[in-house]
Amino acid sequence: MAVHDDCKLKFMELKAKRTHRFIVFKIEEKQKQVMVETLGEPSQTYDDFAASLPADECRYAVFDFDFMTEENVPKSRIFFVAWSPDTARVRNKMIYASSKDRFKRELDGIQIELQATDPSEMGLDVFKSRAN
């Protein structure tokens, strides 16, 4: 599975310049490569991110999560989310599962990985508990 250059470029923008809140990546089966599907503006929220993931198809996503530590220090963590809903086709799940590690290696700077099969597994509370 190839990775489109745009994927790495947009990830670097998110990481270094913080020009995106999140990025949703999709595997284009015909071209056999991972492409950028959605870019979230810095002003967008977790709810916008969650709404951008399809209910019945797998996706990879990166989310720049801002939070406050217990000492009231603002911090952020870059999450990699492997979205694989139970309602996705088996072939779709297999393609995403088999390509995940290679794709993740292309994105240098991911701090925390989440795997989710339904929205409750990647709720805001999960992000908060994993970020600290």
From TrEMBL:
Taxonomic lineage from the root: Eukaryota, Viridiplantae, Streptophyta, Embryophyta, Tracheophyta
Any one Gene Ontology molecular-function term assigned to this protein's record: actin binding
Name of the protein this chain belongs to: Actin-depolymerizing factor 3
Record has ATP-binding as a keyword: no
One Pfam family it belongs to: Cofilin_ADF
Residue ranges occupied by any ADF-H domain in the UniProt entry: 1-132
Organism: Sesamum latifolium
Domain of life: Eukaryota
CDD domains xref list: ADF_cofilin_like (cd11286)
GO CC field: actin cytoskeleton
SMART domains per record: ADF
Keywords tagged on the record: Actin-binding
Keyword Signal: no
GO terms of biological process kind: actin filament depolymerization
UniProt record similarity statement: Belongs to the actin-binding proteins ADF family.
